[in-house]
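Dear Dr. H.,

I hope your travels went smoothly. While you were away I took the liberty of generating a structure for the chain from your last submission, since the lab meeting agenda had it listed for discussion. I wanted you to have the full record in hand beforehand rather than looking at slides cold. The sequence, exactly as received, is reproduced here:
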Amino acid sequence: MTRPAKRAPLLLAMGLLPILAATACSAASPDTTAAAPAATSADQRPFTATEVSRFDQPWAMTFLPDGSLLVTEKRGKLQHLDLASGQKHEITGVPKVAYGGQGGFGDVILHPDFARNNVVYVSYAEEGTLDTRGAAVARATLALNADGSGALKDLKVIWRQTPKVSGQGHYGHRLAFGPDGKLWISSSERQKFDPAQDMSSNLGKIIRLDDDGSVPADNPFASQGGVAAQVWSLGHRNVLGIAFDANGKLWAQEMGPAGGDELNLIQRGANYGYPIVSNGDHYDGRPIPDHDTRPEFAAPKVTWNPVISPAGLMFYSGSLFPQWKGSAFIGGLSSTSLVRVAFDGENAREAERFNMGERIREVEQSPDGALWLLEDGSKARLLKLTPKA
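The corresponding predicted structure, in token form, is as follows:
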């Protein structure tokens, strides 16, 4: 994924002070600037990577209760893969997507009660008027046939980025359900910088909704109404992974500008500072103040410079790799790597980096505890990682 050139941010001075006063902050972890370990070569990996299938520009995947797999392809296809037979079927009824740049079909996740209601959620880039676009999230019922084919039925859009803007970058639109049964959405700032600090916009925010798209009354900015009521945290750049750990804490990774990729512990009402602070700099070389210069902003728990270009985030809970239980895994795009992050309470550090030789778009865990990776781009491989004999 490219990191396009930036313009100088115009700070929303009049609206910013009340937001800062209302938001929580946290100190940087002492591990945040620790040196990353050297990437582990193929012969040193503790796992074997087996190719299972290939996809055209895949973006996300999720396992169904029967062990089969749903995979989104950026051009606008939803594929159902039967891992037992290797048969792949396209699911019909998907929404029309705005394909181009970083835009297209995005995430797919299951409702917490999927076994009963068959409801799935998808995210995608959507066309607007006058050459504008924005991310959208829809819910639908997945109707599968005996042969593995199927369709999305009764699809309904339940959330949109506001406003739609020009450009084809930084949609975010990663989805997760939390232990509270709420739907969480990463809404990136669409390469427009200032909306991340503007509460009249839901760009550059982490969003928390009920499963039908309504706004929970206990959201931190609910009393402000409008799109502000959707917001859980603000000051984010390009969030391409959100996941809950075993203790129910939400973590998010985001691409920084020139340097400064981040892993953040997401706190209620917190402001993470972008574009006012970042541990990276502008693409034209102009510096951005670091987080430690502005303690009122929540600081990342890990930063990367050189960057890893993070995509996909999950916490491992299986038994195939017992030494990794509780670790997080992040796919690396420009770093062509799989990154393992270890935790000590609310502190985090990069523990291992595995050189995969290709851009890694997505990471998931299957019910049997194997790790699964989706490469990025056309003819991208789906890889299953199992322990070496």
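Two observations you may find useful: Residues 1-31 have pLDDT under 50 and may be disordered. The CA atoms of residues 112 and 181 lie 7 Å apart.

With kind regards,
E. W.
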